[in-house]
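Q: I'm building a small set of examples for a reading group on sequence design. Run inverse folding on the following structure and report the sequence directly after it, with nothing in between.
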């Protein structure tokens, strides 16, 4: 209940959420409308959402994302706009190996991967990740008939059908799990990799389509595929924060609900946790779907339902620093673990080898991602139990038995939206429903892509700023 008799403050644009989606939207809207009164509301006491970097002595610790891809160019373009391209960092090229843990061994990723898909059966054979029969099956991909049924298909079904069961289970599934943290039997190929479906239809072969498109892409792009910042991903947030000094950013400000003002067609009123209200004609909501559902519950029961249905996976990330002299590691960026290994660990990133400058020369910085799906939900475990599982993994796989000099745990409950079967239909329904609410925009990772570039691209799109690509 609002006990104040003053009328609510009106702002030209109101943004809910100060993660990368909200900040990018504020940045591009400010560029387009220099005079507009833009207010951004963030529940936490810092900006950035899932992008968080911690600085401890000579260590740079990523608590969430550690990089973004340049193939989807919106994040790179934002860096250009912000004038911080010179602060970008590529992965250390001298460590250019990534592994898959298979039958307790670290096998290198095969050469010739395009969009996570192996395109060179001979290179795959050299990794010993799959059997000879599986490599032969991959080599015969072009002979597999094109699926005529156009109904939505799961990632597991599509990849198994085109490339074979072993390639899916031992290679694609663990690579996907790192990005989506979900179940390939449920994830929709159309929602996650629409290009692969197109390649099947257009070329009769996914591999052929990928090769053709790689040639075109190679002519266009000369930036590294994965990039981060020398100072860690938090640098993007602090830079945006500085450039938004004329946006009214309010931290520790939680929005509880959104209502439509009945007598005015396009106006919205948001209620904050302290019961104050704000009104706007241009409302941008960037929160995860289950929060957006709650915000809209009283205003539109259909949008509530459609958002409430979106499933989210959770993530757990344990970070350790060791004395460099105490650990001996292979060259490389880290490894992923397929489900067939039946492990609690999804993978590990060797941050101090992957990104130069993340730790003093006498230290090794390692991240371990833990599995949060299935019956044994690690989120319920206490910190010590999770550290113990992660350290056991490091001992088994890398022989690191020594005590860490630092350990940190980041829990990310309900942090990874699952683009399961039905996702695209849901998005169409949300977009149709949104037509009834002019001036309200829903962005973030629940809709058209789960990564940082996707978030920025959507923010840019609703801000009306054209991207070059
Ligand atoms: C462990 C992990 C690793 C990842 N690694 C990568 C990677 O390496 N590369 C990559 O591209 N992507 C990665 N991602 C995905 C990436 O983090 C997201 O694409 C991106 O952070 C989404 O930003 P966002 O602003 O849409 O959402 P968020 O970062 O979730 O921001 C939403 C904001 O809204 C705020 N909020 C919530 N409720 C309210 C409310 N009621 N009122 C006001 N504010 C509210 C939240 O506090 C938050 O700040 C990773 C994700 C996870 C979980």
């Amino acid at each position: 209940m609002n006990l104040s008799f003053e009328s609510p403050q009106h702002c030209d644009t109101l943004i809910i959420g100060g993660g990368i989606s909200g900040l990018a939207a504020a940045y591009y809207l400010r560029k387009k409308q220099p005079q507009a009164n833009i207010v951004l509301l963030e529940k936490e006491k810092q900006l950035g959402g899932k992008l968080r970097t911690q600085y401890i002595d000579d260590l740079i610790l990523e608590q969430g994302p550690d990089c973004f891809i340049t193939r989807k160019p919106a994040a790179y373009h934002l860096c250009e706009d912000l004038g911080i391209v010179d602060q970008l960092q590529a992965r250390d090229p001298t460590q250019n190996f990534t592994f898959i843990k298979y039958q307790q061994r670290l096998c290198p990723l095969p050469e010739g991967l395009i969009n996570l898909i192996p395109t060179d059966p001979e290179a795959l054979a050299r990794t010993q990740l799959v059997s000879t029969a599986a490599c032969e099956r991959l080599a015969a991909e072009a002979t597999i008939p094109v699926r005529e049924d156009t109904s939505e298909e799961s990632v597991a079904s599509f990849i198994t059908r085109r490339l074979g069961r072993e390639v899916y289970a031992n290679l694609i599934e663990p690579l996907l799990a790192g990005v989506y943290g979900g179940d390939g039997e449920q994830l929709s190929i159309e929602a996650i990799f629409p290009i692969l479906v197109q390649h099947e239809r257009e070329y009769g072969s996914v591999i052929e389509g990928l090769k053709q498109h790689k040639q075109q892409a190679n002519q266009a792009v000369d930036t590294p595929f994965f990039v981060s910042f020398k100072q860690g991903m938090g640098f993007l947030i602090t830079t945006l924060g500085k450039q938004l000094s004329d946006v009214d950013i309010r931290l520790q400000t939680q929005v509880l609900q959104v209502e439509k003002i009945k007598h005015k067609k396009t106006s919205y009123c948001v209620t904050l946790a302290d019961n104050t209200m704000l009104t706007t004609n241009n409302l941008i909501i960037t929160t995860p779907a289950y929060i957006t559902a709650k915000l809209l519950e009283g205003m539109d029961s259909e949008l509530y339902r459609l958002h409430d249905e979106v499933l989210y996976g959770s993530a757990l990330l344990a970070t350790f620093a060791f004395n460099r002299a105490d650990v001996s590691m292979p060259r490389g960026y880290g490894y992923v673990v397929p489900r067939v290994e039946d492990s609690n660990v999804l993978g590990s990133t060797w941050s101090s080898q992957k990104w130069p400058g993340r730790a003093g020369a006498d230290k090794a910085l390692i991240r371990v991602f833990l599995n949060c799906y299935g019956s044994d939900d690690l989120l319920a475990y206490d910190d010590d139990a999770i550290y113990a599982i992660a350290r056991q993994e490091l001992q088994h796989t890398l022989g690191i038995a020594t005590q860490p000099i630092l350990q940190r745990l980041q829990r990310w409950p309900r942090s990874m939206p699952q683009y399961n079967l039905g996702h695209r239909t849901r998005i169409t329904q949300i977009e149709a429903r949104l037509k009834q609410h002019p001036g309200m925009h829903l962005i973030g990772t629940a809709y058209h892509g789960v990564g940082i570039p996707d978030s920025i691209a959507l923010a840019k799109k609703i801000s009306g700023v054209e991207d070059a690509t």
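The first strand starts at residue 9 and ends at 16.
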